[in-house]
């Protein structure tokens, strides 16, 4: 099975940089998913309304290595839309992905499902497996991701996430897919790499995940220290922690509950940011 411990053949001839120790054979990459893959809370500095995120960063790293090796840039599309659950992701994005004929696809999703009270983890996993089977049958390599290990107010999800993760690894074994082990990343245990909503990463967090994705694909990371935990933070005063928790409830939990009660989603009316594969990075 190809996973985070897998390796790819070494390229023939001398290497010009540490990150060129394995060939980047993929020519077209399509990212499927929800807000995590859309890149929420990681805006482009010159276009703050457009999110970057780990998948854009991964595409940039793969493309840079292709260009350094004298190959054409990687072609890349990102179909992810915030708020989507796994089965709608498959229904809305799989057809377009197959039509694009990529040789690499990332499908990292399921978190929005797991947060629902009525989540059926095995049914979610079955939908994921069906999508992976179709992608692998098309000849594309597939990169999946485990769920995160949550703390504090979201720790109640860890039992569900653990079952989902076990299913992800089983699917990867059956279909020879890659897995980025988000659950096992030590650096993500620190709240400082999470945004104020506590369910999306900061730009630093997204960059760390992009490096983990390179490793999951059998490549060297751009930064060997991508999973080194941050230096210990000074303990926060009780009043400061209470103030932060109150702000989180008011600014993020309240609106999330309201959307659940009204049957709306943060992704309603939104379309994919990069719907058509094109040379990456875009001009």
TrEMBL record:
The protein's Enzyme Commission number: 3.1.-.-
Keyword Transcription: no
Name of the top EC class for this enzyme: hydrolase
A Pfam family assignment: Lipase_GDSL_2
Domain SGNH hydrolase-type esterase residue range list: 31-208
Coiled coil: none
InterPro entries, per database record: GDSL_Rv0518-like, SGNH_hydro, SGNH_hydro_sf
Keyword Glycosyltransferase: no
Region of interest (Disordered), residue spans: 1-22, 259-283
Gene Ontology molecular function, alphabetical: hydrolase activity
UniProt keyword list: Hydrolase
PANTHER family with a match to the protein in the record: GDSL-LIKE LIPASE/ACYLHYDROLASE, PUTATIVE (AFU_ORTHOLOGUE AFUA_2G00820)-RELATED, GDSL-LIKE LIPASE_ACYLHYDROLASE, PUTATIVE (AFU_ORTHOLOGUE AFUA_2G00820)-RELATED
Name under which the protein is recorded: SGNH/GDSL hydrolase family protein
Organism taxonomic ancestry: Bacteria, Bacillati, Actinomycetota, Actinomycetes, Micrococcales
